[in-house]
Design a protein that fits this description.
By secondary structure, the protein is of the alpha+beta class. Helices cover 24% and strands 34% of the residues.
């Protein structure tokens, strides 16, 4: 099995509703997100790729145009924009375009990561 990965970066704010009032994530705050898209395949194409990394530029455009320096609750229409839900959202977006997508990871900090992998 061949696996490739590509990282994408953006900064945005969010707020998690339904938490205790003293929970830091209940307050409006932001992160420098790192999104990692994983693709896998049993075979390689005629040029030796799982998929050409350049093709993933469409995801960078999506992130830059719709998410970067925005309030994610407003953009994604959810009062609970967790890293877990973002990973699923990004997975669905990518899988609709590239069938080789196998997982998406969202890092809010260098020490925290959520992954969606069906």
């Amino acid at each position: 099995m061949f696996r490739i990965f590509k990282e994408f970066h953006f900064s945005a704010s969010h707020q998690l509703h339904g938490l205790a009032e003293d929970h830091p994530c209940a307050r409006l705050h932001g992160h420098n997100y790192v999104v990692e898209v994983e693709l896998k395949s049993d075979t390689l194409d005629s040029t030796g790729f799982v998929r050409d990394y350049r093709e993933l530029g469409a995801f960078k455009s999506y992130v830059d145009d719709h998410l970067d320096h925005r309030h994610l609750n407003d953009v994604l229409g959810d009062d609970c924009v967790t890293a877990e839900r973002m990973a699923k959202h990004f997975f669905d977006w990518c899988k609709a375009r590239w069938p080789e997508v196998s997982a998406v990871r969202v890092k809010e900090t260098p020490k925290t990561c959520a992954e969606y992998r069906p």
